């Protein structure tokens, strides 16, 4: 029954993604756009979009734990298949899947009124404050005359943090749902990782990071062939990260490993060492037998020789903007026109910056920095206290992301800073269960969790 429960939504989610892929396919006739980043050619594409939305909603209503795995892997997987990593396409698909997830949860709560409960954690209030601050900053930015489109773009990049947090606490409401979501996520991401391993310029990125280290920690809590399998899976993701030719990912993975070795228990350290050794062996075998992997490996050395580009001068512009109004920043969507960036060109700087902390300060000021770090650091404190549980693995990843955001701004936003705190608090061992029972997909009952 458990296998059927997993396979049915996996198949349906895949069908929904195929429909979304069809919507995104470029067409030559009657070019238009349904939503930004989603080219369309007429009624046929409107129909496909409707089918994709209905299909995703049906899946998400029946199996709410599929929302986050589909949103994370779906965006990267579909854009990889299409060969279109443009910001507009990535944002369009990401927003589409998140919107489908939110609509599904609203419908589910209306249908199951009084029975569908969410997990409550100590970070709920801080995340609500983040939402309030983003809304206030958007109004402030519009009042100052910031371009509405820029306000929308900046708002999206901040809003994905509380959106992912609350999607997690609304959909992962029991240990069974957390386990099912993990199985679906690892299954989809592992298939795509294997498929792209020998393709130059492709890598799993965020999904490989989020999968590798929890699998590594989980392996130290098992024995026999199960441990071997989990270690091999972790090594697969780590090998993909090594071949990513993306220094920020290397930094993030390196910091996470450092936290595991420095703060983890002896079992975690041994598991990490075993996974690293398995990664070396896997890479050696792949280099010996795969021309594509050898080509990807050649890109690693070129990435090491790249400079920092215009990140520093761009950050200095953002800091100047922040210093002009340090408490609340220059409002959401702020930008500075006609700025010359060395090694780049004369351009408009803002509202997005490669350095995430500069982006916070320029748009939201010190108030925004305090509000955004409050729930993240709260979860981090709880996770690092465990030393060998799943919450510890997610906390170690938070440490890596907090360092990595100094250097990169992903097109989909720093959604991991919303997802990871939720996962820490939902998987910590001190979790207790209270409240009325909620229904699960298999017809069993499970109680919502409240993290104290």
Automatic annotation (TrEMBL):
Q: Where is this region: Disordered?
A: 433-452
Task: Provide the transmembrane region boundaries.
Answer: 6-25, 46-65, 91-111, 123-143, 149-168, 180-198, 204-220, 227-243, 249-268, 275-293, 355-377, 389-409
Which UniProt keywords are listed? Membrane, Transmembrane, Transmembrane helix
User: What protein is this chain from?
Assistant: O-antigen ligase domain-containing protein
**The organism of origin for this protein:** Plantactinospora solaniradicis
Instruction: Tell me the lineage of the source organism.
Output: Bacteria, Bacillati, Actinomycetota, Actinomycetes, Micromonosporales
């Amino acid at each position: 029954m458990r296998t059927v429960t997993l396979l049915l939504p996996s198949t349906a989610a895949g069908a929904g993604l195929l429909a979304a892929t069809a919507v995104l396919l470029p067409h030559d006739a009657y070019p238009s756009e349904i939503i930004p980043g989603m080219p369309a050619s007429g009624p046929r594409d409107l129909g496909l979009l409707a089918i994709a939305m209905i299909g995703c909603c049906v899946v998400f209503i029946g199996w709410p734990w599929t929302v986050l795995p589909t949103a994370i892997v779906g965006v990267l997987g579909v854009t990889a298949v299409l060969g279109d990593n443009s910001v507009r396409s990535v944002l369009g698909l990401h927003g589409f899947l998140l919107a489908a997830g939110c609509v599904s949860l609203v419908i589910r709560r209306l249908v199951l009124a009084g029975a569908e409960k969410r997990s409550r954690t100590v970070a709920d209030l801080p995340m609500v404050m983040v939402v309030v601050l983003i809304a206030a900053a958007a109004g402030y930015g519009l009042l100052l005359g910031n371009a509405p489109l820029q306000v929308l773009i900046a708002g999206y990049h901040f809003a994905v943090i509380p959106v992912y947090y609350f999607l997690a606490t609304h959909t992962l409401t029991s240990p069974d749902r957390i386990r099912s979501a993990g199985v679906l996520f690892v299954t989809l991401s592992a298939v795509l990782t294997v498929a792209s391993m020998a393709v130059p310029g492709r890598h799993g990125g965020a999904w490989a990071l989020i999968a590798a280290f929890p699998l590594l920690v989980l392996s130290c809590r098992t024995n026999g062939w199960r441990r071997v399998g989990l270690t091999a899976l972790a090594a697969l993701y780590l090998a993909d990260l090594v071949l990513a030719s993306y220094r920020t990912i290397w930094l993030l993975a390196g910091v996470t490993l450092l936290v595991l070795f420095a703060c983890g228990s002896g079992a975690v350290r041994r598991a990490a060492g075993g996974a690293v050794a398995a990664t070396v062996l896997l890479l050696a075998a792949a280099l010996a037998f795969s021309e594509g992997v050898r080509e990807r490996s050649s890109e690693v050395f070129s990435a090491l020789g790249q400079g920092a580009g215009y990140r520093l001068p761009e950050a200095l512009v953002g800091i100047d903007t922040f210093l002009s109004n340090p408490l609340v920043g220059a409002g959401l969507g702020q930008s500075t026109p006609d700025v010359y960036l060395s090694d780049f060109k004369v351009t408009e700087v803002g509202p997005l910056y490669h350095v995430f902390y500069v982006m916070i300060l320029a748009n939201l000021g010190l108030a925004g920095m305090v509000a955004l770090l409050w729930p993240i650091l709260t979860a981090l404190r709880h996770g690092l206290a465990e030393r060998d549980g799943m919450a510890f693995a997610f906390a170690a990843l938070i440490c890596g992301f907090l360092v990595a955001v100094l250097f990169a701004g992903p097109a989909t936003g720093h959604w991991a800073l919303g997802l990871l705190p939720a996962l820490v608090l939902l998987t910590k061992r001190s979790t207790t269960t209270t409240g009325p029972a909620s229904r699960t997909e298999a017809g069993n009952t499970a109680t919502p969790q409240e993290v104290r």
